[in-house]
Design goal:
The structure is a homodimer of 451-residue chains. Chain A is of the alpha/beta class. Chain A is built from 17 helices and 13 strands. The radius of gyration of chain A is 23 Å and the shape is globular. The two termini of chain A are 29 Å apart.
Chain lengths: 451, 451
């Protein structure tokens, strides 16, 4: 199969994995993070906190930080839980751009609920501000909760993706509307720019249009790179056409490998080298000196929420569970009767953990119903997971959601990164100053002739 | 007349003027600023430069910086001139917010070409980031050049202002959707927020709609304040209803007084105290040790452009002028024949300067056809102008466009500000930490019951 050959070639060429850090509400990815000792409960509104977290990731040589967004659908448990996202992803990245040097800056920007010209302007300005470190995670918005904030209902999938293709095409054209050498700024001759290298784009689509040009010259990397997130056939198509990296979500090595391959095949259909698109699934981490310490940390974090999840675990395993007996392992009869749900890709792993004899509380503390694979244990377990997926052709890298964004990032940098570096799987130092450089994405100036 | 009484009261109460700094393309307000010795020609893309300029204004105790915007209509003379505006006003203000402490941060955001929810989010996030120093200059966009970047034509004035009123109302409601004490974040009790103090806004207008709430708690000033710019009856109405400050443009003390009064009367019609709305006309400055030195600096700045302006001056004065005789004053016959154009409010001033016997080049170097009154001379002339307008009830303050944004700001801070302070017309120190505090704008939490 094509991807296996490609992997062998990667290994021969000494290719290394990419690592990104998920930055959200300022506390961390676990709901209880805002209450943890040592965490400032004001971090939700603190730009200092985000800067510090990004700096920690930069210390660990992460290639990028990633800030998801999805405005408005986040107030369900506001009595006890923080919203998931940044107050504003672009303003956060602006602060981080000023106070870091190398790390890439990637944020979600909806193709559904933004004026394309405004998105083009902000991401390009961020790219200038960060000296070539910006990436745009171009996604369609879904959910009527979000749409209602814009006074609308969610368009059909066909419309959303139709508009998304046009929006990305238009924005890349605006980004490219100043040629590589258009900005002369020669005080002696008095020439500010070469007008013949600054061209209107005059794009008129079914959903969006723009005359252009944008009034911003190229950055050190030319223009931002495109990320995409998702796993549907629509996502494969959009990323295959435009993206240099995919923010993925996969629970098994097999699923991740199939996803990665689907994106690579899509890139080929658009005449691209499949290595131009990096598949980066998520990984959640609670790193401690051993499994027990890590489980205790998760229990401290999840607090009262753990018993509430028993019902969900019942469905996953297909057996009744007793939430009054949290500290007992499942009985032999329960384990024998368990049938992992074929509809939940996490179910087999949950049963494996249950069979290891952990108490009901500890099973849940393993994160068996979280959004991504979860490492709850010493750093070497995270490194092993990442190596296995990387070498199996299931991932080009990982985006890390630390449980708590204080010591949770530092412990990854101090305990996981050095192991990966020793194994030759992760770089020792930034090779480049730009995000394109970090990802090996080709230069792009002017308007891409393939589009 | 009402405003005169009010002014007398102001003087009795020892009220002082406000000063703002215009921040645009990073070079300064004169077209030749980018070529001046000592100016880095890369300032157009430099966030360092903007931060330094804002810090200079903060050293001078300016109450705010003001960043106009109007994306896309700026590439006319790109061969020799810089675009007028920031790459992105919000990212610039984000950088400045992190690297200043007190100065207010005001930017234009179009009510015509933005999703209201996105504008609400960014200005509120900036308000949090700056600890209560954000202001939104809410204006409708005009010009088909701008509209074309959004794939549209400019709507009618009725539609633009109709939408603008709805957009501001909706955004203020989103800003107020968290009550003053909604954000509890008590680690001990585990209460993150009071759900009953976070309310959907459910606004449905003719042009825009939103469900809300926004997911951002109040800042140190509660929420950003509204600026408006313009002088039309539509502007009076919009500012009278919503604004705490008006970015004005007036060439004479009489016009400025009439404008100020019109805004105050409009505020009264909406049941507001007219002192809640500050009228702030523009002032352009070239400060040097004497008139001659200042004129020479303007000539250095304007360079080849000065002879190109002779045609315009002919129209203003109603007499033929000879652009081959730039270094001669107008003849007695020319001065006798001159008839200031009744359609140009700058014409009488231009004739006054001509009658002082300056050469044609020097007349133009006085900035007689610039966008605002221009001070070309020693600092005391700026201070005198500001005092006269302030004491005549023509202005609550001024926004300053320095000719060059390096020494042009510093010289204002060092030569004009101390005179105003000595005369008791300008504060010695920031009295407040928030922009509302600087402007004396009342607190606003939750949704304004008057709207």
């Amino acid at each position: 199969m094509a991807y296996n050959e490609s992997i062998k070639n990667d290994a021969k060429a000494g290719k290394q994995m990419l690592i990104g850090l998920h930055l959200g509400n300022g506390y961390g990815s676990q709901p209880g993070a805002w209450r943890m000792p040592g965490v400032d409960p004001e971090n939700y509104t603190s730009f200092d906190a985000r800067v510090k977290q990004a700096q920690a990731a930069e210390r660990g040589k992460f290639q990028f930080i990633f800030l998801p967004d999805g405005p408005g659908a986040m107030l369900t448990d506001i009595e006890t839980e923080s919203p998931s996202f940044n107050l504003d992803v672009m303003l956060t990245l602006a602060a981080v751009a000023r106070e870091t040097k190398r790390i890439g800056l990637v944020a979600t920007g909806s193709t559904t609920f933004n004026e394309p010209y405004n998105l083009a302007k902000q991401f390009k300005a961020l790219d200038i501000m960060s000296h070539g470190r910006a990436g745009w995670n171009a996604v369609t918005s879904s959910g009527n909760d979000v749409a209602a904030n814009y006074g609308r209902v969610i368009p059909s999938s066909e419309e959303r993706y139709g508009r998304a293709h046009e929006v990305i095409q238009l924005i890349q054209a605006l980004w490219g509307s100043w040629g590589k050498d258009a900005w002369v700024h020669d005080q002696e001759s008095g020439q500010f720019a070469r007008k013949d290298q600054i061209v209107p784009i005059n794009l008129q689509g079914k959903y969006v249009a723009s005359r252009g040009p944008l009034y911003i010259p190229p950055s050190e990397q030319g223009q931002p790179i495109i990320f995409h997130a998702g796993g549907s056939p629509n996502a494969h198509e959009m990323a295959g056409r435009f993206a240099n990296a995919v923010i993925g979500a996969a629970f098994t090595i097999e699923d991740a490998r199939a996803q990665r391959n689907a994106f690579r095949e899509a890139a080929k259909r658009y005449g691209r080298d499949p290595d131009e698109i990096k598949y980066i699934p998520g990984l959640m981490t609670t790193i401690a000196k051993d499994r027990r310490a890590a489980l205790d940390r998760r229990i401290q974090l999840a607090g009262d929420l753990i018993p509430q999840r028993v019902g969900y675990l019942q469905q996953m395993l297909g057996i009744p569970l007793d939430s009054t007996r949290m500290d007992e392992p499942l009985s032999k009869a329960q384990l024998a009767a368990a049938r992992p749900s074929p509809y939940d890709p996490r179910a087999a792993h949950a049963l494996k953990i249950a069979r290891e004899g952990w108490s009901l509380r500890d099973i849940l503390a393993h994160g068996v119903i979280d959004y991504h694979p979860v490492i709850v244990g010493p750093g070497v377990e995270a490194a092993d997971h990442m190596q296995a997926w990387f070498e199996a052709g299931a991932a080009d890298g990982f985006w890390i959601s630390a449980d708590v964004n204080t010591d949770g990032i530092d412990v990854f940098v101090d305990e996981v990164v050095p192991i990966l570096q020793e194994r030759g799987l992760f770089h020792q130092e930034y090779e480049s100053k730009t995000l394109r450089g970090h990802l090996g994405a080709p230069d792009q100036y002017g308007i891409d002739p393939r589009v």
